[in-house]
Design brief:
Layout: E1 5-6, H1 17-23, H2 39-59, E2 66-69, H3 72-87, E3 93-97, H4 102-112, E4 117-121, H5 131-137, E5 142-146, H6 160-169, E6 173-177, E7 196-200, E8 211-215, H7 230-233, H8 241-256, H9 258-279, E9 283-285, E10 296-301, H10 306-315, E11 318-319, H11 335-339, H12 344-347, E12 350-354, H13 361-379, H14 383-391
Parallel strand pairs: 1-11, 3-4, 3-5, 5-6, 6-7
Antiparallel strand pairs: 2-8, 7-8, 9-10, 10-12
């Protein structure tokens, strides 16, 4: 769409032109199967291994610790189910949080049906998990802690290094869903004591349909897909060479100038937050005020429905969301916002605007021009808002 102001970068990001350029040969002349021993196949294998090095370097890992997957959700499933099955003789207790992505929550629910027990830790009003609560929840039969690095809806960055240190001290495997974090904030698996980490390429201007799971050497989750000997016999299936190459290029670009990118996006984020707070009453900023993803802006607007807000923004050429893209068809209020303690009616009126490196100040100014009018138009139809106005 021409003149679209795209502010849903937490859902997906536009493919970087250099990433597309890097991928193109592997759709055409470099079409070999990496498992083949002749030159064309070995050329594809070299491309896959080169991308593995790029992904590893971006998070401070070794190339042998990176396994390519079909997406971030697959990486979450493999990490959680793989460790559960590999360690169930030691215990069946898992620790997680109330605000995880559904790729984690639904995976844990499936394990609960198989006899595993999950402790879902609460968060504070800013969406933070307390490291002390993690420590207090550990039992002799605890085999896994899985806490996301940054929340996809409210942008809160969790104290992952502290939680990782606690897990290490107690000999418990620690997994983090870092799908929103990788490419947006610095990530180092060694410094953060992370045993397993999930990521997804399309969150940092790579292609859709490709992700990766970091598994620290010595950690052995059960095999998730059986069949061939790909990914060092841990994940079967012919490699998606073009997308793997794209992921390697995208993560190098995303982390190569990370501090400058963070500075630019954070400045736009703070400008947008300040503008909304100045122009619109009866609102609440959701998520931690400072420990949040550079591009995340999430507000609840009283007296209106988030869905109506999205539709009117779309009609005015602005793409946004009310929460996770994976639950956009649901009419239920966000489980994340409810976990913060927001009442249903306020949680229903949420808006997530997520900024990317391609966005401009002019676009933010346009949103700040449009949004107050849209909010006012919707509130004018609300009898609750009418009551509040009459009391003023």
């Amino acid at each position: 769409m021409t003149n679209l102001i795209y502010l849903d970068n937490s859902a997906t990001t536009p493919l970087h032109p250099e990433v597309l350029q890097a991928m193109m040969p592997y759709f055409t002349e470099e079409y070999g199967n990496p498992s083949s021993i002749y030159g064309l196949g070995q050329s594809a294998k070299e491309a896959v291994e080169s991308a593995r090095v790029q992904v590893a370097e971006a998070i401070g890992a070794k190339p042998t610790e990176i396994y390519f997957t079909g997406c971030g959700s697959e990486a979450d499933n493999w990490a959680i189910k793989g460790i559960a099955k590999a360690r169930e003789k030691k215990g069946k207790h898992i620790i997680s949080s109330a605000i995880e992505h559904h790729a984690v929550l639904h995976t844990l629910e499936s394990l609960e049906k198989q006899g595993f027990e999950v402790t879902y830790l609460p968060v504070d009003s800013d969406g933070k998990v307390s490291p002390e609560s993690v420590k207090a929840a550990i039992r002799p039969d605890t085999i896994l802690i899985t806490i996301m690095m940054a929340n996809n809806e409210i942008g809160t960055i969790e104290p992952i290094a502290e939680i990782g240190a606690i897990a290490k001290e107690h000999g418990v495997v620690f997994h983090t869903d870092a799908v929103q974090a990788v490419g947006s904030v610095p990530v180092n698996v060694a410094e953060m004591s992370i045993d397993m980490l999930s990521m997804s390429a399309h969150k940092f201007r790579g292609p859709k349909g490709i992700g990766a799971l970091y598994v620290k050497n010595g950690i052995r989750p059960e095999i998730f897909m059986h069949g061939g000997a790909q990914e060092r016999a841990r994940r079967a299936g012919t490699e998606n060479v073009a997308s793997i190459v794209g992921m390697g290029k995208a993560i190098s670009l995303a982390t190569g100038a990370l501090s400058e990118k963070m500075q630019k996006i954070s400045a736009l984020r703070d400008y947008l937050i300040a503008g909304i707070q100045e122009k619109i009453p009866y609102i609440k900023l959701n998520g931690h005020p400072t420990d949040r993803l550079p591009g995340n802006v999430n507000f609840s607007f009283q007296f209106i429905e988030g869905e109506s807000l999205l539709l009117l923004l779309d009609l005015n050429g602005v793409a946004a969301s009310s929460g996770s893209a994976c639950t956009s068809g649901s009419l239920d209020p966000s489980h994340v916002l409810l976990a913060l303690g927001l009442p249903h009616e306020i949680a229903h009126g949420s808006l997530r605007l997520s900024i990317g490196e391609q966005n401009t100040k002019e676009e933010i100014d346009k949103v700040l021009e449009l949004l107050p009018n849209i909010v006012q138009r919707l509130r004018d139809m609300s009898p609750l808002y009418e009551q509040v106005k009459n009391q003023e």
